[in-house]
Amino acid sequence: MAKIKTIKDVDLKGKKVFVRVDFNVPFDAQGNISDDTRIVAALPTIKHLVEQGAKVVLTSHLGRPKSKADVQFSLAPVAKALAEKLGKDVVFVDDCIGEKVKDACSKMVEGDVVLLENSRFYSEEKKNDPAFAKQLVEDTGAEAYVNDAFGTAHRAHATTAGVAAYLPIKVAGLLIERELEFLGSKTETPVRPFTVILGGSKVSDKITVIDALLDKCDAMLIGGAMAYTFALAQGRKVGNSLVEPDKVDLAKAALEKAEKKGVKFLLPIDNATTQNIDFAGGSVSEIKIMESDIEDGWAGVDIGPKTIELYKNQVAESKTILWNGPMGIFEIKDCAKGTFAVAEAVAKSDAISIIGGGDSVKAIKKSGYAKDVSFISTGGGASLEFLEGKELPGVAVLDKE
């Protein structure tokens, strides 16, 4: 693909820049931000623009409001947190179009930062309504567009794609640049051996990713509940494990493709199993390790110790690793050994290590090894769609070199 232009390729001094960031952060019961990862991830782009003398107008969504103003989904607390991290004032406007926006943006001087209210307070945002997109540009007085919200780049919304039609400069921020580098070029032309580790519950969620990555990788390791659908495809018994019987043919096709391509395709050789899972209480009954078949009345909840060793050895031989999806129900302590062992092996390897969004990010953070991997993607669905080879609307609208 043609290289996307970034904020490093254009002069934005003195220009009003409409910047789509991803400030969709979680809050605790007391209304405090419980994980500021996404705010921190946006800082390099915001600081770069401020230092260049741009007038920075930030926009984001938060949660899933019902297309109307709702205080529990307001970005006001994010403005406060952002100001602390930037060490400078951030003007918060409790709307994203209209007179308040016009007024605040008209007073901006070089280096100022304005944060607009949740774009999803308007139904036109998700509909990618052209009139709404045009009004966003006109009311802010924007002269350039920067997309740095990789987590929503797979959505064609007004702030992720629509506004680009009304602006002459459309470039990526530094976060999207890194996402495209690690999920794109470093997996397209990887340092080999290239190992892909895939987990999670459903083969159906990952089958297109499996198919696309089998064309690129040297080894693929499967964990999570999707491994039991593969076990069915191999004619093994899986007891009461979570499976997708209607996806067995897809699993067989993947196994056949791996063999044809000469890709080492590793499935669990033993499993941690249990008879009862209490998700609400975060506990399971007795854990029993079973090799090959899983007995009736028992369900697989994690990879077993022999599989852990097998996977660790493969990771140790790798030069590039892409990991997407946990090995078991890592939220429950007794079912987290496999996921945390893989996290440790990936972190301690000499390989370029890429964590591909979603639950894998939660797992690597919970394991304590997040600081020891090369790159953690901020995109869940966007990461998967990009790895599948799909064009992301929020990237497609940007200027190419």
Largest sheet: 6 strands, parallel
Average predicted confidence as pLDDT: 93
Could you tell me the number of beta strands?
Answer: 17
Residue share in helices?
Answer: 25-40%
Oligomer description: single chain
Instruction: Report the end-to-end length measured between terminal Cα atoms.
Output: 11 Å
Q: Tally the helices: what do you get?
A: 14
Short description:
By secondary structure, the chain is α/β, with parallel strands linked by helices. The protein contains 14 helices and 17 strands. Strand 16 (352-355), helix 12 and strand 17 form a beta-alpha-beta unit.
Question: Any overview of this molecule?
Answer:
The chain is of the alpha/beta class. The strands form 4 sheets. A 6-stranded parallel beta sheet has the order 3-4-2-1-5-6, with helices on both faces. A 6-stranded parallel beta sheet has the order 9-8-7-15-16-17, sandwiched between helices. Helix 1 crosses helix 2. The mean pLDDT is 93.
Map the helices and strands.
Blueprint lengths: L15 E5 L16 H16 L2 E5 L16 H11 L4 E3 L5 H8 L6 E4 L6 H5 L2 H11 L3 E4 L22 E3 L1 H15 L5 E5 L4 H12 L4 E4 L3 H8 L14 H14 L2 E3 L3 E5 L2 E2 L4 E2 L3 E4 L7 E5 L1 H12 L3 E5 L12 H12 L3 E4 L3 H9 L7 E2 L4 H7 L5 H4 L5
Parallel strand pairs: 1-2, 1-5, 2-4, 3-4, 5-6, 7-8, 7-15, 8-9, 15-16, 16-17
Antiparallel strand pairs: 10-13, 10-14, 11-12
